Recover the amino acids of this structure.
């Protein structure tokens, strides 16, 4: 597995399999863990950082009962390669920006990604396509067991697993789902959705985490805190909220399909027409149009385009992937031209 | 020749033949004439109006040395049929709105159209595709001779041909060209074009005459007055101005094609993509998009669409034609849906 292969494949989170996948694109578990033997990464000496990175690379590439993981050290990776990892949700933006020893261990299908020396020594992620929080948690649990069989975690009988960030102390667990909510957006209900979700102590973020605005009507919904709650409580809280959100989006889709059919078809077909014909297109417009086309496919308005092609385009038209797939660094204006060409060719082939 | 056939054929003014036709869509001559034996139409008694209409119908359908003309009396014509005649530039809006005896005599190829009992007893029009003012004038001259061989015009040795409208007294001639100026619009030069044209005593109007805004970047440029000028002066004045305008538009097109190629291609290809994919579209957007596609064809950016198809769509997507071709009256929302469908099918067949 190398970055070239990675950038061409469909990540687990976009596989379009599993329950309610037309709305719940993917489910994710993230666990923060630290080693007892080292200070938190922000307090590392250069030697400790290097030593911890080597140690963890060795551990993660030799786990028992775990799909084989490929370790990518970030030192020496180009900006484009780092962007590719961020765009695939395998590492955080902050992790990409650091220049000291750090890395990420990734399973071949990208359902497991473990950041080394980010804010914590270990940030473990498990992805599943569709609404499969319980399954993702089971995989995470086994992964946690496999790692803890090899290393000694920093753990306090009083607080639980220790973490560099107070919101992660306790179970260190963040559970989240990536939702595609185009009908709520088209019917002007996004704001009220935000308010409802915050009221039940869940956080909403855009496609690429905190501070990023909603792109392509894709939203991440996750628990806010992990301290004082058990893993089961965290997962149950999210698991019981998601079907409600799914129901709202589904009702909005039905409303559009039944009461505003002409406008829906127009919006969706124009979006596809734009993607098939534009000669230059920026990321924001691309995500917006892909969102409409995805809705159109899911509602049966568009029948001759595979949803897999659209899901792939959500990632492969982002700046990092676009440059990686073109094999060269491009300035923004060139990127927009290449992006439009890439989309036209992908849709022609579909 | 009936209105059904008329609505399906390509009018002379959209034939896309003749010099500079990529910019000068058509050339038009219009002559106002009145009969000595009757007062101007605004002063008709009901009996005189009826009598004059019958008399002129008889005259116009039996002219010598003139292509055969079909006479359409407007009384009894539906609103849709009247709209069709207006949209084809065969009658004026004012003519369409009247309810007393009036009509229009039209040649099979629509190069000749003579309104009876509009503001004047006779409003004769000759159309030619492309920049062919002299040819249009020759046809008009022969038509005028053929009519004056049968009727006695109202003529004053002092003022020339008398007309109900002071701006038409004298020769009664209005010469005009229909220009397609999308590159001036895309480069923001439309305003300065308007000012220059007014400075040399020419008038600029939109696609459908005075008071209508520029639709589809189509503009009519004509002489302002006919009193005190000979026919030759009027035609020379316009004939010498048009090549300048053509030059400006051509330079703007070259600028777009050479310096802003990416944006030009994007604009043009998106326009075509929109027309091919939209499910509902109003007249204004349609004309704007057709204008870009026409530019794209003329600049070689679009190669698989016939310009004839686009020219036809300029007229056949207008409300009257759309309803005529669908064989039923449609409300605006339905029209927009039918228009989009009509365009998709026309482009698929091209």
């Amino acid at each position: 597995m190398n970055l070239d292969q990675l950038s061409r494949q469909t990540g687990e989170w976009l596989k379009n399999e599993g329950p309610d996948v037309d709305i719940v694109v993917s489910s994710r578990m993230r666990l923060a863990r630290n080693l007892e033997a080292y200070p938190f990464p922000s307090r590392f000496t250069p030697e400790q950082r290097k030593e911890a990175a080597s140690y963890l690379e060795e551990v993660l590439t030799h786990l028992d009962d775990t799909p084989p993981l490929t370790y990518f050290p970030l030192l020496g990776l180009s900006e484009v390669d780092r962007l590719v990892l961020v765009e695939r949700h395998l590492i955080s933006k902050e992790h990409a920006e650091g220049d000291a020893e750090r890395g990420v261990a990734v399973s071949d299908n990208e359902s497991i990604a473990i950041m080394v020396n980010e804010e914590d020594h270990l940030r473990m992620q498990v992805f599943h396509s569709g609404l499969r929080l319980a399954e993702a948690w089971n995989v995470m649990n086994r992964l946690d067991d496999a790692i803890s069989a090899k290393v000694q975690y920093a753990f306090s009988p009083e607080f639980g697993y220790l973490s560099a960030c107070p919101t992660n102390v306790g179970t260190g667990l963040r559970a989240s789902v990536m939702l595609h909510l185009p009908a709520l957006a088209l019917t002007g209900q996004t704001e009220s959705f935000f308010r409802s979700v915050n009221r039940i102590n869940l956080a909403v973020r855009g496609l690429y985490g905190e501070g990023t605005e909603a792109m392509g009507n894709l939203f991440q919904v996750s628990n806010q805190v992990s301290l004082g709650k058990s893993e089961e409580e965290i997962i149950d809280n999210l698991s019981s909220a998601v079907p409600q959100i799914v129901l709202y989006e589904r009702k909005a889709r039905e409303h559009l399909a039944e009461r505003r059919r002409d406008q829906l078809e127009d919006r969706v077909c124009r979006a596809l027409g734009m993607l098939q014909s534009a000669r230059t297109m920026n990321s924001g417009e691309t995500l917006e149009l892909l969102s409409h086309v995805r809705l159109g496919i899911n509602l049966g308005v568009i029948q001759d385009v595979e949803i897999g092609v659209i899901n792939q385009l959500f990632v492969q038209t982002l700046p990092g992937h676009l440059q990686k797939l073109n094999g060269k660094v491009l300035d923004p204006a060139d990127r927009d031209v290449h992006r439009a060409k890439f989309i036209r060719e992908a849709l022609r082939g579909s």
